[in-house]
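User: My collaborator sent over this chain with a note saying "see what the structure looks like." That's all I know about it. Can you take a look?
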Amino acid sequence: MQLLYDKLKETMMSVLPIVLIVFLLSLFMVDVPSDMMIRFVIGAVCLIIGLTIFLLGIDVGMSPIGEKMGQSIVKSPSIGFILFLTFIIGFSVTVAEPDLAVLGEQIADASGGLLSSSLIISVVGIGVGAMISVGMIRILKGIPLKYFYTAAYALIFIICLLAPTDFIAMGFDSSGSTTGALTTPFILAIGASASALKSGDASEKDSFGLVGAMSTGPIIAVMLMSLIVSIDLSDAGSTYEYTQGIIEPYINAIGPTILETLASLLPILIIFWVMNHFYFHTEKDELNDILKGIAYTFIGLVLFLIGVNQGFFDMGHYLGSKLSEGYEAWLPLISASLGFVAVLAEPAVHVLGDQVEEVTGGFIRQSLLITVFCLSVGVASALAMLKIMIPSLQLWHIIIVFLGISLLLTYFVDDLFTGIAFDAGGVASGPMTATFILAFSQGVAEYLPQADAVKDGFGIIAMVALVPITMVLLLGLIFTISMKKGNISENETEDE
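Assistant: Without extra context I'll predict from the sequence alone. Here is the result:
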């Protein structure tokens, strides 16, 4: 019961700040239709209840599965089998990620149906599976993270030069959307259990980084898709239509959402059943707990998706379009405020903050890290809005600056901080970014005449996932310099 209460408190902190800002905007700046506001409130309730049950299911069911899979993978004598198994696991957990399902629907709407949600989810799943396999091999072979990320992003840079510009923002947004409420704890558990079988300092350094490694996969996959499949999005027209009614949309969404969620979770369940039969041999009591966790995950995911699709999409899109009419100059500040409060309340951010404080012996405290997260995501959200408002400012201009700085910093900080930083990018882009904030960005891009819904409407998740990487690496640089000056000793980092 206490665990459920803690999850409820975390989730309310995640959702209520956005609700408060929406109420303030509707009172002072935008006249929101009453039916849309009621749907939004119902959606917020569904989100709070759904995420609470979902996160409980992650702790009870999905994380133990991830730990068991990680241990079994590393113990395998065959590199080929490790590559195959990690690919299947990465693909399966990605297609079940709620944030990616949300992004897939938004891409389908913005592209006028030229790109289907199922195509995007499948392509991104393949990319994630491939890079998790490569990331696991990196852990086993002890390859430094700075070399891995340099090679991965060099490849991304080359592909981006060849790919159509319309797909660049989609690729980077897909990367941020894969590291959501389901995928992040699952992959963190696999990476931690795999690195734990190594000895000493190598184990600690490899505890982080697998989430960051898998984040490169969607970018590569979407860019390659744009080169292989000839799709011209220049004339794509948005098919976005506002929902009508209040209760009926929720009732109509129940059946399709249940089927969609079952289809998403089924691959994970099959893999677990097979591996449990041949490898885990989980005891009955523990197996019952895991099955309960899977049931919680299913119920929570259904409620989450219903609340997002029927309540949050319309509100974010509507506010973005209406604020563009009379408050264009305020858009960067409003977007920064939304980004600031969204990441402030993101449960995964607090989890990472605890981990960093423990690893650094309290030198980098959770409160400091969360402050940096809030500021960096606020800056990223404001930059995303400026990109929409200023045609000459392109996404790749911003990406190349922050990514270039980040890759350079990896050669001056410990691998531990490199892993933390690139994992941090995924942690920052949580459910609120993938739902409300992206819908807000889409609404602005569709209204402003100088913007394009496809090229400019996407990209905010990419920047929210990228800017924190640079900021955390800067913290790592400060930590490294302090260690060299003797302000903090190696022993202090091992205290807890």
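A starting point for your reply to your collaborator: The CA atoms of residues 49 and 146 lie 40 Å apart.
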